[in-house]
Design brief:
The protein has about 260 residues and is α+β, with helices and mostly antiparallel strands. The protein has one domain: Phosphatase 2c, domain 1 (4-Layer Sandwich), CATH 3.60.40. The protein is about 35% helix and about 30% strand. The protein has helices spanning about 50-65, 70, 80-100, 150-155, 160-165, 210-215, 225-240; strands at about 5-10, 20-30, 30-45, 105-110, 110-115, 120-125, 130-135, 140, 185-190, 195-200, 250-255. Strands 2, 3, 4, 5, 6 and 9 form a six-stranded antiparallel sheet that branches. A five-stranded antiparallel sheet has the order 1-11-10-7-8, with helices on one face. Strand 7 (about 130-135) and strand 8 form a beta hairpin. Helix 1 (about 50-65) runs antiparallel to helix 3.
Length: about 260
C-alpha cells in the first residue's frame, strides 16, 4: 500500500498554548510499508497538558523505531502490537499520574493512534474523545466511540445525540491517560480500504457538520498531499471563524 499524508494543528482563538500533539511515522520492512498516525489532546494547567500529550507521542515514536520492527518479523504481529500498546498506555497513565501527584497537578491526554500493517490491516488504540473516521466517496464513518459522560448516556439510550450536544457534561471524559486511576484502552482492528482516514482532536469537529468533512476529505477530493494540507488548514480556519475555543488539530491519511 501507498500513503499520502498531511496534518495541521492550531492553538485556536483563545488558548496561548497548543496542548495537542501529533505524529505521522512511515517505515519500510521486508513485508512492505508500515504507517503510524496518532493524535493526543492534552489537558491540564499551564503547559502541563502539552507535557502529557507530548510524552505519549514521544513514547509512540520510540516504540515505532525500536519495538515495532521486531513485531513485524512475526507471522501475525497484530496480537503482539495490541498487547504492547495496552501495556504502554497503562504504563504511561501511571507515570503521568504519579508526576501530577508529585507536582500537585492534574494533567492528562487523550490518544487516538492508528497503525497500518504491511498486509493492509490496521489497529486503532483509543482513549478519550479524539476521533478516527473512515471516508470513502460515498460514506463518512466514525470508527471510534467518544469516551465521555454524554456519549455513554447516548449509548445507554438515556439521552439523544441532540440532548448530548447541549449537555454541560459533553466534555467530561470517562478516562484519560494520566488523569484516571486506571485506563482500559479500546482496541479496534480492521482492513484498510482505498479511502481516506481522518484523525482529529475534539476541537476540530465541534463546529463542523459530517457532510462538510465528507465533502472536504473524500478520496476524490484529496488528489495529493498539498491539496490535503490545504483542506485541513482551511477547515481549521473555519472552526476558528465559527468560534471554536479549543486547540484544533487533524491529520489525513489517503490509502492508495
Amino acid at each position: 500500500m501507498k500513503y499520502l499524508c498531511a496534518m495541521h494543528s492550531d492553538a485556536g482563538i483563545r488558548k496561548t498554548v497548543n496542548q495537542d500533539s501529533l505524529c505521522i511515522l512511515e517505515g519500510k520492512s521486508d513485508k512492505g510499508t508500515v504507517l503510524l498516525a496518532a493524535v493526543c489532546d492534552g489537558m491540564g494547567g499551564l503547559n502541563k497538558g502539552e507535557l502529557a500529550s507530548t510524552t505519549v507521542i514521544r513514547a509512540l515514536t520510540v516504540w515505532f523505531e525500536q519495538e515495532l520492527p521486531g513485531f513485524l518479523e512475526k507471522n501475525d504481529p497484530m496480537d503482539e502490537v495490541r498487547f504492547s500498546w495496552e501495556r504502554m498506555i497503562k504504563g504511561y497513565n501511571q507515570r503521568i499520574r504519579e508526576y501530577g501527584t508529585s507536582q500537585h497537578l492534574q494533567l492528562g491526554t487523550t490518544l487516538t493512534a492508528m497503525l497500518f500493517f504491511p498486509d493492509g490491516r490496521y489497529l486503532i488504540g483509543h482513549v478519550g474523545d479524539s476521533r478516527a473516521y473512515q471516508i470513502t466517496d460515498t460514506r463518512f464513518e466514525l470508527l471510534t466511540d467518544d469516551q465521555t459522560v454524554t456519549a455513554n448516556e447516548v449509548r445507554l439510550g438515556r439521552m439523544t445525540p441532540e440532548q448530548a450536544e447541549q449537555d454541560a457534561r459533553s466534555h467530561v471524559l470517562l478516562q484519560c491517560i494520566g488523569a484516571s486511576k486506571t485506563v482500559i484502552p479500546t482496541m479496534l482492528s480492521g482492513t484498510a480500504q482505498t479511502c481516506s482516514y481522518l484523525l482529529c482532536s475534539d476541537g476540530f469537529r465541534h463546529e463542523m457538520k459530517a457532510d462538510e468533512l465528507h465533502a472536504a476529505f473524500s478520496p476524490s477530493a484529496c488528489t495529493d498531499e498539498t491539496v490535503m494540507k490545504q483542506k485541513l488548514t482551511e477547515l481549521v480556519e473555519v472552526n476558528k471563524q465559527r468560534g471554536e475555543t479549543d486547540n484544533i488539530s487533524a491529520m489525513l491519511i489517503r490509502v492508495m
